[in-house]
Amino acid sequence: MISVVTASCLTAYAFYTTGPGDACRSTSTDRLAWTIPFVLYGIFRYLYLVHQKEKGGSPTDILLTDRPLLLVVCAVGAGRRGHRLHRRRRADAAGAVSGR
């Protein structure tokens, strides 16, 4: 059952990030698909901790105490923030050139 849910979750996320829907427009980036490997690693890391290391219980405790999971969350967040800042700077530079 877990393998079916995991595969379905990853497939749905991949379609969400690469599809023509509102995901790319709402996040103001066309590079959302680059987060798929991070999400894949995060899900498999969590499953490894729960099933192999028997750390089931509170998902919050696992997230806050496991350094690799924290690094994945920080990397995705930093990448998205950096991309937004880059787009804002390009828009400001284009506005300055056009005289706005």
Report strand %.
under 5%
Please identify the structural class as seen in this structure. mainly alpha
- General shape: flat
Distance between the termini: 57 Å
Tally the structural domains: 1
Q: Percent range for helical residues?
A: over 70%
Contiguous uncertain segments of 5+ residues: none
Largest sheet, strands/sense/barrel = none
In words, what does this structure look like?
- This protein is mainly α.
- It has one domain (2-98).
- 77% of the residues lie in helices and 0% in strands.
- It contains five helices and no strands.
- The protein has helices at 2-18, 23-27, 36-51, 59-65, 67-98.
- Helix 1 runs antiparallel to helix 3 (36-51) and helix 3 runs antiparallel to helix 5 (67-98).
- It is flat, with a radius of gyration of 18 Å.
- The chain starts with a helix and ends with a helix.
List the helices and strands and how they pair.
Blueprint lengths: L1 H17 L4 H5 L8 H16 L7 H7 L1 H32 L2
Helix pairs in contact: 1-3, 3-5
Could you provide a short overview of the structure?
The chain is mostly helical.
What descriptors fit this protein?
mainly alpha, 100 residues, single chain, flat
